[in-house]
Design a protein that fits this description.
seven-stranded parallel β-sheet, about 230 residues, two-stranded parallel sheet, globular, alpha/beta
């Protein structure tokens, strides 16, 4: 058994596909006593989730005191890898993430920073999103706090959650049942957004969490078949 003291969680990307599932997992977990979301503007979230508004994540140090008092940061924010120019993708995926991570680490030196990356992230990849996510992982690993990188492959939204990107909505609407079936047979290829959240909660309580988790490990910790 891992430590069971109540967790205080700071979540980013709470309105995104991954973040919605992670938020649900936090609200459903008896281990999580407080969930706060770092948002760029007032968001439509469950009333139990506190909101810290920061219009530009690259200025995270300016709200440093508001980031204090947490046990873990679940970082789920990011840009879609399809249809995003490289400069914008780097700004959102690398620059903004590091700004928040640095400010959060300074405010919570004993905490943990858990980053939702992606399968095959590699700073030497020829594929732009994988290369930038790999660069982000490498930079986060240099922080003075413990970091964990989660690398899901396909992410299935559970009921009541979904993507905000119009081009991707048909994929999840019609492909959802197939993704659920694939996840049960091939856990290394598909997980659910809520399973990612449950895995993050387990990782936040582990005395020595692994530095990197691949999709199958996320499913083992998060019990994707339960959603």
């Amino acid at each position: 058994m891992y430590e069971t003291r109540p967790l205080r969680i700071l979540l980013t990307g709470a309105t995104g596909l991954v973040g919605q599932g992670v938020a649900r997992a936090c609200l459903a977990s008896p281990q999580v006593a407080r969930t706060a979301a770092l948002v760029r503007g007032k968001a439509r979230l469950d009333a139990r989730i506190e909101q810290i508004v920061l219009a530009d994540f690259q200025h995270a140090r300016g709200v440093g005191p508001q980031l204090a008092g947490f046990d873990a940061c679940f970082y789920c924010a990011g840009a879609p890898p399809v249809g995003t120019a490289e400069d914008e993708y780097r700004k959102v995926t690398l620059d903004a993430t590091l700004a928040v991570a640095a400010a959060w680490a300074e405010a919570n030196p004993d905490g943990r920073f858990l980053y939702v990356s992606g399968a095959h992230a590699n700073p030497h990849s020829r594929i732009m999103p994988l290369r930038i996510k790999g660069e982000t992982e490498a930079a986060l690993a240099q922080l003075a706090v413990r970091t964990v990188m989660l690398r899901p492959a396909g992410v299935r939204p559970v009921a009541g959650t979904g993507t905000r990107h119009a081009a991707l909505k048909p994929l999840y609407r019609f492909g959802g049942p197939l993704m659920a079936a694939a996840g049960r047979v091939l856990p290394s290829l598909v997980t659910s957004n809520e399973a990612i959240g449950r895995a993050m909660i387990v990782l936040a309580t582990m005395p020595e969490p692994p530095p990197v988790l691949e999709c199958a490990q996320i499913n083992r910790l998060g019990g994707a078949a339960a959603t």
